[in-house]
Design brief:
The complex is a heterodimer of chains A (183) and B (487). Chain A is an alpha/beta fold. Helix content of chain A is 35%, strand content 27%. Chain A has six helices and eleven strands. A nine-stranded mixed beta sheet of chain A has the order 3-4-2-5-6-7-8-10-11, with helices on both faces. The longest helix of chain A has 21 residues, at 2-22. Chain B folds into four domains: 9-37 and 146-188; 39-139, Beta-Lactamase (2-Layer Sandwich); 196-315, Signal transduction histidine kinase, dimerisation/phosphotransfer (DHp) domain (Helix Hairpins); 318-471, Heat Shock Protein 90 (2-Layer Sandwich), CATH 3.30.565. In chain B, a hairpin with a 5-residue loop joins β1 (84-90) and β2 (96-101). In chain B, 55% of the residues lie in helices and 15% in strands. A five-stranded antiparallel beta sheet of chain B has the order 2-1-5-4-3. In chain B, strands 7-9-10-12-11 form a five-stranded mixed beta sheet, with helices on one face. In chain B, α9 (363-379) runs antiparallel to α11 (438-448). Chain B has 487 residues and is an alpha+beta fold. Chain B has helices at residues 9-38, 40-58, 60-64, 68-75, 141-193, 207-274, 283-314, 326-343, 363-379, 411-415, 438-448; strands at residues 84-90, 96-101, 114-117, 121-127, 133-139, 322-325, 347-350, 358-361, 386-394, 397-404, 452-457, 464-471. The chains are: A alpha/beta (183), B alpha+beta (487). Chains A and B meet through α1, α2, β8 and α6 of A and α3, α4 and β2 of B.
């Protein structure tokens, strides 16, 4: 009985805490997440620029952040590297980046870009509903809060290691072709 | 103020020890309180830091990705610890990502990391990543419990110290105070009552024991001297008494002696005055001559006795010892005295003596002794009485007994019978005359022979018996032994 009450109280608190968080702009949250990726994802040594050189964050196609990304990343550093944001309509116009937000609304273009990045040490991030199925690595799921799902198979194909801590806070993890619902 | 004035040794020792213990209690109590206060924050940290570390590591990604669910999952187990009142994870913009326990009061919340001590709670604030903060609130119960534990330990130490102090006092009481108190009491008894027999028990090797032994040794010396002094005083008193007694007896003896010398002299003077006026050969003249002769003999005997007594007392008599048969000595002496007895109508009986009784003796002196005894028996036995003489030999000793049916003696008279001048002391009660030297002289002579003399009487009017005991000599007679007895 006491345990049940504790559970209800706990759930209530969690809900209220959650409601607190939705008041923020989801794009701000996503921008902060992108910054976190630089911390919780490990790139192979050859895929990183020279020490002290900035992280390259590329945005392909539609830029739904509208400056939020720059604002969030400005003046910040992760592992001794600042951030640099590059925008392009197609993949060919982007320099070699570690993180690429694939914002193409057209599934065909999106798939093309993902296929081009497949097997490369580039963390692909998107918010399209079928982003993971299309070969993306991290998909933002925006509901009451901003959550994320991770395609571990794709990350491994690109020689990227994603820390377990990050998996713990994810919604779904795709591993070995099987989707595991974390919460 | 003199704290120690007018107190006993025991009280002083107790005062010092209890004072020391009290100081130890107070100083350690204060030290404990200060220590508790100083270590409060450290102790709070020691309890809370591990939880903070756990939450910090566990919520790392949850904070980074603002995942309240995961953050809550990490915080929830803290509910199991009743000491943790609340835990909150607050993001950099003030939003609460997750919390357990009482709803945090955002207004009073501190934002700098550190430990904040309150009366009821302790709050630890820790920086998480991305400007987020962990607020961990603990009740002071655990800290208070630690303090109570320390207090109990302190209390136990106080009790132990108390017991140790009591033990110390008891040990000092036994080894120091009690011996000194006993010594003091003994010394006071010696001073106030002169009880020199006081001793204290002094076992051990410490100074107190040595003091006790010295005291005992001193008391031993003092007691011995005191006893010596008492004995000397007593001896002195006895000696004085004896001297006085002797002096008195000599004075009396002199009086008696003068009297005894004067009586015969008076008779002789009367005879000398009568003689010229009486025709020679007349009965009166013959009687005068007879009186003069008898009194001269009496005087001679008196002076001879006196000389003998003096000689014996100075050890100047030498015995002419020879082997003699005691029967011969007794028989001849009795023969000599028989006329004396018959004059007084007394009966002298000599009991039969079948075997010779050989002794080594001066026959003349033995005859003198026996004569004295017979003389006394005749003197103190009224007319018609019987005097019996008996000789016996048994157990290596020869005995001569002279028993009469005379006036007899009381026991206390017998005791002093053989002292010189004994008869003289009877003073005016004397009726028989004489100086009383005979028995003293007899005793001296018998003792010179290695023998003894004793008297027996069943009381006044019931006769007396005198027994001379002498050691027996070798059995065989010698040819010239009898010759010395020849008249």
């Amino acid at each position: 009985m006491a345990a049940a009450i504790a559970l209800v109280v706990s759930a209530g608190f969690s809900a209220t805490a959650g409601q607190d968080l939705v008041r923020r702009d989801p794009h701000e949250v996503e921008a902060a997440y992108i910054r976190n990726f630089a911390r919780y994802v490990t790139w192979p040594v050859g895929a990183l620029p020279a020490p002290g050189a900035p992280w390259c964050v590329g945005v392909l196609g539609r830029d739904s952040f509208v400056g939020v990304l720059e604002r969030t990343l400005r003046g910040r550093a992760e592992q001794g590297r600042p951030f640099e944001v590059h925008r392009a309509a197609s993949l060919w116009e982007l320099p070699v980046c570690q993180i690429v937000f694939v914002g193409h609304d057209d599934p065909g273009r999106r798939r093309l870009a993902l296929r081009a990045l497949h097997g490369k040490p580039v963390l692909t991030v998107g918010d399209a509903p079928e982003f993971l199925r299309g070969g993306g690595m991290i998909q933002f799921v925006v509901g009451d809060t901003v959550q994320m799902s991770i395609n571990l198979d794709q990350a491994r194909a690109g020689s990227l290691q994603i820390q377990t801590k990050m998996l713990e806070v994810s919604r779904e993890v795709l591993e070995g072709g099987i989707v595991k619902v974390m919460r | 103020m003199n704290l120690f004035g007018g107190r006993t040794l025991r009280q002083k020792l107790a005062l010092v020890l209890w004072g020391t213990a009290l100081c130890a209690f107070a100083s350690s109590g204060i030290a404990l309180a200060v220590f508790q206060r100083l270590t409060l924050e450290r102790r709070a940290r020691a309890i809370m830091e591990p939880y903070a570390d756990l939450v910090s590591v566990g919520t790392d990604a949850a904070v980074a990705f603002e995942d309240p669910v995961r953050a809550q999952e990490i915080l929830d187990p803290l509910r199991a610890n009743p000491e943790i009142l609340a835990a909150d994870i607050v993001l950099d913009d003030g939003r609460v990502l997750a919390h357990v326990g009482t709803r945090p009061d955002a207004s009073g919340r501190v934002s700098a990391p550190g430990v904040y001590l309150g009366n009821q709670r302790v709050e630890l604030v820790r920086n998480l990543q991305r400007g987020a903060m962990l607020h961990l609130t603990m009740s002071v119960g655990e800290l208070r419990r630690q303090e109570r534990q320390a207090l109990w330990l302190f209390g136990a130490a106080v009790v132990a110290l108390l017991a140790i102090t009591l033990g110390q006092i008891s040990v000092l009481q036994r080894t120091l105070v009690k011996p000194i108190a006993m010594l003091t009491q003994a010394a006071e008894l010696v001073r106030s009552r002169g009880e020199y027999g006081q001793r204290v028990s002094a076992s051990g090797t410490d100074e107190v024991a040595r003091l006790g032994r010295s005291f005992n040794a001193m008391m031993q010396t003092v007691e011995e001297r005191e006893n010596d002094l008492r004995r000397l005083l007593a001896e002195q008193r006895v000696l004085e008494q004896a001297l006085r007694e002797s002096d008195r007896r000599k004075s009396e003896f002199l009086a008696v002696l003068s009297h005894e010398l004067r009586n015969p002299l008076a008779s002789i003077r009367t005879s000398i005055e009568v003689l010229p006026r009486s025709p020679p050969g007349s009965p009166i003249a013959a009687r005068a001559w007879e009186i003069m002769k008898r009194q001269a003999v009496h005087l001679t005997r008196l002076v001879d006795d006196l000389l003998d007594v003096m000689r014996i007392s100075r050890g100047k008599i030498e015995l002419q010892r020879a082997r003699v048969d005691l029967r011969d000595v007794v028989r001849s002496t009795c023969d000599d005295f028989r006329p004396h007895f018959e004059r007084g109508t007394l009966q002298l009986r000599l009991e039969p003596m079948p075997d010779p009784v050989w002794i080594d003796a001066d026959a003349t002196r033995l005859a003198q002794v026996l004569g004295n005894l017979l003389h006394n028996a005749a003197k103190f036995t009224p007319a018609g009485g019987i005097v019996t003489v008996r000789v016996e030999a048994s157990g290596g000793r020869a005995e001569v007994s002279v028993r009469d049916t005379g006036v007899g003696m009381e026991p206390d008279e017998i005791k002093r019978l053989f002292e010189p001048f004994a008869q003289a002391e009877q003073g005016l009660a004397r009726t028989q005359g004489g100086l009383g030297l005979g028995l003293a002289l007899s005793k001296g002579l018998v003792e010179l022979h290695g023998g003894s003399i004793k008297a027996r009487s069943e009381g006044r009017g019931r006769g007396s018996e005198f027994i001379v005991s002498l050691p027996l000599g070798p059995g065989a007679p010698r040819a010239n032994a009898m010759r010395s007895l020849a008249p």
